[in-house]
Amino acid sequence: RATTSQRSWLKLGIAALAVGALALLTGYRLLSDTSSYPPDDETEIVAALDALDRGDFALARPVLRAWAERGDSSAQFALARMYANGRGVEQDTKQAERWYRRAGQQGDTRAMVELGRLYAAGRDIAKNLPEAVQLFRTATTRGDPLGALNLGILHLNGEGVPKNPELAFEFIER
Questions:
Q1: Buried b (16+ CB within 10 A) or exposed e, 84-109
Q2: How many Å apart are CA 108 and CA 85, to the nearest integer?
Q3: pLDDT in tens, 73-102
Q4: Model's pTM, two decimal places?
């Protein structure tokens, strides 16, 4: 017959096994092993993007970086926004530019628009209106309404393109 102390240890052991089994079934890692980044499934990137939405940058940053370096355009875009806005990292426009460009090269129109906005504003980065116009046009032709809006604003103000209010409103209404 087991003593009270033995029963407590047995209950603790069973609970630990149950938690471990549950972790295996759900794909949750009990121990963080950064050498295995990025994981083979998308569970961790989804959790990182959720953490980013909650403002938990410490949890999101290492996973996003691993996936971004692997070539995931959503992670590249999210990491670029972190750098652009100084959220969870020191604000760094050059890093934002780097990650927006990589995501945009893979067809992420959100990244094209944000990179275009960086170039159009020229804050902490060389102003490059021709590049901004090209990025906005590409995003627009791919159906991105913010690309069209930004292109319309440039046409309205005559920045980097001829001033054309009629064309501006066509883009803005898209």
A1: beeebbeeeeebbbbbbbbbbeeebb
A2: 19
A3: 999 999 999 999 999 999 999 999 999 999
A4: 0.74
